Amino acid sequence: MKQYFDELSKTPRFKYMVLERGNGEFFGILDARKLRYLLDNGGAAPFRNWNDVRDAIARRSNNFQRFPGFVGANRALTTETSKRVALERLQKEGREWLPVIGQDAKLAGITDRSRLTAGLILDVAKQLEATPESTGPKK
Q1: Which end of the chain is more exposed for a tag (fewer CB within 10 A), N or C?
Q2: Residue 103 and residue 101: Cα distance in Å, rounded?
Q3: How many CB atoms lie within 10 A of CB 17?
Q4: Could you give the CA distance from residue 103 to residue 8 in angstroms, rounded to a whole number?
């Protein structure tokens, strides 16, 4: 498993370890680089090494919920969550990203603070452009 993570970590696109239930529903997600760093430097409860992670996956263990930075399905955003609410959640939880699940309980994607902020700014700009000229003093 370590070799697998080492190889995948060479690509900048590899960021997350996604865990699913047997039926394909989203269970949770970990920051893959953080997982790799912690395990390569002595581990973090409940995982001391890569074998512990492999065994937890094989047993479909709930131990992942105790790992630093784990985000379970119960803390994921949904595809129906508004940008404002999503940004509030990120702020409240002190996070830069959160998973998003669809109505089928499967992972739909990841949203991050910068994308949400940019989206809200664009929404406001569109609203301002659509608003009639201000009704200030006439010339």
Answers
A1: C
A2: 7
A3: 21
A4: 30
